[in-house]
């Protein structure tokens, strides 16, 4: 595997270059703006292209070193692609609502995750000995905790990198990461400030196609990092992928007897 490739055409087709209305701009993003059309700012994709590539490299390198990447995107159109990207690349996500203290008060969050796991075990065992009312209360608590913490239940500690869509909406997550010195990769639109973002991806943070593209590329970069990590550990990825075919090619005992 290699770092995922993408083209200027792909960015254009996904609408990455469309910013917000000119009156809603943040002057701190001026250097990344190419111009405006019909009252809408247009981002300079010749800058986005290498910056997105650099951000993907950071995602890859973090995972290759055994690090954890936390995907963060709680706006409606980002929820599914954020969760899919994290699950596909064996990483972690927050896509419901950022709980204050998720990073800075990890000890308390860990206790809530333990509570979720305990409820899951109880429900899996048929919730024996509980009344109908108690069971209903437990189901409600389980649903609430799963929505808030399901994406980080197996993280086991603080992440090594945040991948964020919409820095305005996820400002609390970025603030907590900054306090703890956790680097941040983020898509930054024309109405946002890039302050606090270590690896800026100037781009549209509202269009579903653009969000899907960022998430897909980030998950593929993480997968490439996993391949590198396994390669460094002496696991032959090629042998793993070829093994099933080799087994299929081997004649069965019945075929061997028939041939004889």
Automatic annotation (TrEMBL):
MF GO annotations: structural constituent of ribosome
| Superkingdom of source | Bacteria
Q: Which keywords belong to this entry?
A: Ribonucleoprotein, Ribosomal protein
According to its UniProt entry, the protein's GO biological process terms are:
translation
Do the record's keywords include Thylakoid? no
- GO CC, one annotated term: cytosolic small ribosomal subunit
Q: Which family does it belong to?
A: Belongs to the universal ribosomal protein uS2 family.
Question: What is this protein's name?
Answer: Small ribosomal subunit protein uS2
Which source organism?
Paracoccus subflavus
């Amino acid at each position: 595997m290699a770092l995922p490739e993408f083209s200027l055409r792909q960015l254009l087709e996904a609408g990455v270059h469309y910013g917000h209305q000119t009156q809603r701009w943040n002057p701190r993003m001026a250097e990344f703006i190419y111009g405006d059309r019909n009252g809408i700012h247009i981002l300079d994709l010749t800058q986005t292209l290498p910056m997105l590539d650099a951000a993907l490299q950071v995602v890859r390198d973090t995972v290759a070193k055994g690090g954890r990447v936390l995907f963060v995107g709680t706006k409606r159109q980002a929820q599914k692609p954020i969760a899919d990207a994290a699950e596909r690349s064996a990483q972690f996500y927050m896509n419901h609502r950022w709980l204050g203290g998720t990073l800075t008060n990890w000890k308390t969050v860990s206790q809530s995750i333990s509570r979720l796991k305990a409820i899951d075990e109880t429900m899996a065992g048929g919730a024996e000995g509980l009344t109908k009312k108690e069971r209903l209360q437990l189901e409600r608590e389980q649903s609430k905790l799963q929505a808030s913490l399901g994406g980080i239940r197996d993280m086991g500690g603080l992440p090594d990198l945040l991948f964020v869509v919409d820095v305005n909406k996820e400002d609390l997550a970025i603030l907590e990461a900054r306090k703890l010195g956790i680097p941040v990769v983020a898509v930054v639109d024309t109405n946002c400030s890039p302050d606090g973002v270590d690896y800026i991806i100037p781009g549209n943070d509202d269009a579903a196609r653009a969000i899907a593209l960022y998430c897909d590329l980030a998950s593929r970069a993480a997968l490439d990092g996993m391949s590198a990590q396994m390669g460094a550990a002496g696991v032959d990825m090629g042998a793993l992928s070829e093994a099933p075919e080799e087994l299929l090619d081997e004649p069965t005992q019945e075929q061997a007897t028939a041939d004889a």
